[in-house]
Design brief:
By secondary structure, the chain is α/β, with parallel strands linked by helices. The protein has helices at 17-28, 41-53, 70-82, 106-127, 153-173, 199-207, 217-228; strands spanning 8-11, 32-37, 58-62, 88-91, 136-140, 179-185, 188-189, 215-216, 239-242. The chain has a single domain (8-187, 220-242), classed as NAD(P)-binding Rossmann-like Domain (Rossmann fold, 3-Layer(aba) Sandwich), CATH 3.40.50.
């Protein structure tokens, strides 16, 4: 169903994993999708090729969101492509670092906040001139923001910050007709997830979930696509847990 026909979308970190699945889902629903990536040009172009083979519209954009001016550069590039209207922003790009409190390093902490919090904040800021009535912003939170999961305290803090941003963004941008939400996945089986590739990691994941299978990127992408659509027109300021009933 072309529920997003005529819409324009930007998905950050879309060369693989949840970002890739989201870009494909939005394109399948009819949206023109800009595929952002920092590294992995070949993977990003593969996503574009998949969308175009299905007669969709897509382009790849490279920007390092870890850089202070990364969001500003990306927004400028996006505006040069889509003009004066962006309907959907999915701020999916993020990094993770596992470390105990004793072993955590300042540079790693700063990098986590730069990519996971600062980048989406300023990307929303820089794209405001082309976001408007009916636009949807979806940020990526995490199960780690709501429950203790391994040695991820610094990463979890960034996702807690995302949940806070969602409420403030939704309140401030609501009068403009812009909806802002987040999805909070649990453990997802992607090519980046080494945790799910071990028997111990798989067993632990299944033990904490009500639904006894490993999540796939498509499980998350479908919810993001819903939030981007008019079916979610009365949903804003919320963080949806999409985690198979993890740590109930």
């Amino acid at each position: 169903m072309n529920t997003l026909s005529g819409k324009t979308a930007l998905v950050t970190g879309a060369s693989r994993g949840i970002g890739r699945a989201t870009a494909l889902a939005l394109a399948k629903a009819g949206a023109q999708v800009l595929i952002h990536y920092s590294r992995g040009a070949q993977e990003a172009e593969s996503v574009v090729a998949d969308i175009r083979r299905a007669r969709g519209r897509a382009e790849a954009i490279a920007t390092d969101l870890a850089e202070p001016d990364g969001p500003h550069k990306l927004a400028k590039h996006v505006r040069s492509i889509v003009g004066d209207r962006l309907d959907i922003l999915v701020a999916n790009a993020g990094i993770s670092k596992s470390a105990t409190i004793e072993d955590a390093k300042v540079e790693d902490f700063d990098s986590l906040y730069a990519v996971n919090v600062r980048a989406p904040f300023f990307l929303v800021q820089q794209l405001l001139p082309i976001l408007g009535q009916g636009s949807s912003v979806v940020l990526l939170s995490s199960l780690a923001a709501h429950a203790s999961v391994g040695t991820l305290s610094a990463y979890a803090a960034t996702k807690g910050a995302v949940d806070t941003l969602v409420k403030h963004f939704a309140s401030e941008l609501g009068p403009r007709g812009i909806r802002v939400n987040a999805v909070a996945p649990g453990v997802v089986e992607t090519d980046m997830s080494t945790f799910t590739k071990t028997d111990q990691g798989r067993d632990y994941t299944l033990s904490m979930q009500a639904l006894k299978r490993l999540a796939q990127a498509d499980d998350i992408a479908g919810v993001i696509s819903f939030l981007a659509s008019d079916a979610a027109r009365w949903v804003t300021g919320d963080t949806l847990r999409v985690d198979g009933g993890s740590k109930l």
